[in-house]
Design brief:
196 residues, mainly alpha, 2 domains, 10 helices
């Protein structure tokens, strides 16, 4: 059997994580096995264990990779000298692009996180709460600055996050709707709902 090969875009571990995310999305974390992952990659199971400790470690890597990407983008957006509405639009567009580009990983982070071990689960949920709290603060600031309608900030953020998560349903229509059109349509619709 073949060896795991790195790609131009990532290490061997990145390749394993990407394949694992696909398998976890298709079968669910609990139903997927390391043996099946190895078979899908065309390698022996022991080859996987040279690069990754366990199935749980793979799930942890996927969830925290996605959480870190979202948090990094939020922190960058917070520092930009643009309006609150523009900051929220940039975050919405980032969510859409990440969902389209790293669909399997985002899906797993959205649905399979509940199978993280106790310590990782607690850390992951804390990161999610912090992310949502920071978005809520942006909406509150936009309301105070008279940029955003006087709407409930938590409802606004949950609506945005739920709408972007809904892209999972649109994945099967990807060929009918171009990525740029999809991003522009969703971002425009969500942002217009915020603007005063």
């Amino acid at each position: 059997m073949a060896k795991i090969k790195a790609t131009a875009n990532g290490s061997r571990q990145d390749v394993i994580i990407k394949k694992a995310a696909f398998l976890f999305r298709k079968k669910g974390f609990r139903a997927a096995s390391m043996r099946e992952l190895a078979e899908n990659m065309g390698v022996e199971a022991p080859s996987l264990y040279n690069h990754i400790g366990s199935k749980g470690e793979l799930l942890q890597s996927i969830c925290f990779k996605i959480a870190a990407l979202f948090m990094k983008q939020l922190e960058e957006v917070e520092t930009r000298q643009v309006s609150i509405v523009e900051k929220l639009e940039q975050l919405i567009r980032f969510h859409i692009r990440l969902m389209l580009q790293l669909y399997d990983e985002v899906y797993v982070a959205n649905h399979e996180w509940k199978y993280l071990d106790e310590i990782s689960l607690s850390q992951f949920l804390s990161q999610r709460k912090l992310y949502e709290a920071k978005m809520i603060q942006l909406v509150k600031k936009g309301i105070r600055q008279n940029e955003i309608k006087n709407i409930h900030p938590q409802v606004a953020v949950l609506t945005i996050l739920s709408a972007v998560k809904g892209l999972e349903i649109l994945q099967k229509h990807k060929k009918e709707i171009g990525e740029a059109e999809l991003e522009n349509s969703i971002a425009e619709y969500l942002v217009k709902g915020l603007i005063k």
